[in-house]
Amino acid sequence: MTSKSMLRFVSVARQTPEKREVAIRRHDFAEIYAGWAEAKAEEQAARCSQCGVPFCQVHCPLHNNIPDWLMLTAEGRLREAYEVSSATNTFPEVCGRICPQDRLCEGNCVIEQSGHGTVTIGAVETYITDTAWEEGWVQPVVPPRERAESVGIIGAGPGGLAAAERLRRRGYQVTVYDRYDRVGGLMIYGIPNFKLDKQIMLRRAQWLKDSKVTFELGVEIGRDMSFADLRARHDAVLIATGVYKARDMQAPGIGLGNIFPAMRFLTASNRKGLGDTVPDFEDGTLDAEGKRVVVIGGGDTAMDCVRTAVRQGAKSVSCLYRRDRANMPGSQREVQNAEEEGVEFRWLSQPEAFHGDDVVTGVKVQKMRLGPADATGRRAPKPVEGESELLDADMVIMALGFDPEDLPTLWEQEDLPVTRWGTVKIDHGSKMTRVEGVFAAGDIVRGASLVVWAIRDGRDCADAIHKYLTGLEKVAAPEMSPSQKAPAAAE
């Protein structure tokens, strides 16, 4: 096949990999999409129009060279397709599975706008990298030369790992610290198996270890090691902690039992799937089996919660969201999957109070309407007076988003600058904080966002650290107090 075989969108219909039957998939945690055969991947990649202005690439946070690797796939040149794909993306097989393509690359595909149905970019991306692993094309990073400088990275999530890989390619000595016992952050403990099989992340973790990235797991900065000691160990430090503090709401009865934050519920389920002993799951506390589950929120985390509850055998699963379907922040593909699996969505609904004695037994639900747009440009939800109902519930899961932890206090670094939202302030040119040699990237800078944005930020920050350590870019930091200056290196 040659590039002349492209633009086949007029003769070949859009097709996605087959989903497993609902009756089967809702009872296990296996990924719901089957893989593609080579011929089908080539056929679907050949639908690309190779347009002059590739809006798929423009709207990808990583600016992946999508038209190029689609053409290479269509021509059967898969190894080259993988090389092009992995040049801009540290984890293409992850993004192919969990990115909300309907809001990013596929949602801006030119042939989608012309009514022919988008190219299935995410599925092709997944196929390319899965094939690369099967064929042994994915090899550990071997830098052209080793450098003496070391970089400490706080956080083994997508941002920290992306930075670690890019720094290793330049020969830096990289150590990643994380409070958890496995590498991956939300990719291992937040995202369920049916979207991202844990073996995919464990395989990448081993690849990074084989690339000579050092991991110190179960280490919490501020508890097991001071931030000052960490700085003394390394020539530069990257803060890539992500944001884990669950947002709460104020309502009567919010303190009742069996009301849980989303990450506690998801982490317990993922740990159970990994074979860990999870007492809160074993005793039934965090097991949704036989329960009437109500999930509050409309983002991708809420979708992970409702679909996990279905698989645990919940009696019923309802999702409350205060806006309508068109205005929800989560992926529409995930909403469709959840509906197929039996989740009931209650749009324009907001919890007003939680009923029960010691544990929750019901949620008083207030009906909402959409008013004029607020400062964010989204139509603000307003209560409809006199319209509410009581919804039975044995378990309530709060998926309202995440905020940063108070890092200056936790790390005894009062001079670490943060915004009024608690995110770390950086100079967006140098990626450095006001503290010399300390950088930050990912959700801890931009707030809770997508994995693909964390990867982009981590890669960009790695480039900035390289410029700093090699003197390619001199950073004029503000006048620093003695506590901000880097401590002397340990003997």
TrEMBL record:
Its cofactor is [4Fe-4S] cluster. Transmembrane segments: none annotated. It comes from the Bacteria. Residues 151-458 form the FAD/NAD(P)-binding domain. The keyword rRNA processing does not apply. InterPro entries: DPD_II, FAD/NAD-bd_sf, FAD/NAD-binding_dom, GltD-like, Helical_ferredxn. Residues 25-136 form the Dihydroprymidine dehydrogenase domain. GO terms for molecular function: 4 iron, 4 sulfur cluster binding; metal ion binding; oxidoreductase activity. Keywords: 4Fe-4S, Iron, Iron-sulfur, Metal-binding, NADP, Oxidoreductase. PANTHER family: GLUTAMATE SYNTHASE [NADPH] SMALL CHAIN (PTHR42783), GLUTAMATE SYNTHASE [NADPH] SMALL CHAIN-RELATED (PTHR42783:SF3). This is NAD(P)-dependent oxidoreductase. It comes from Marivibrio halodurans.
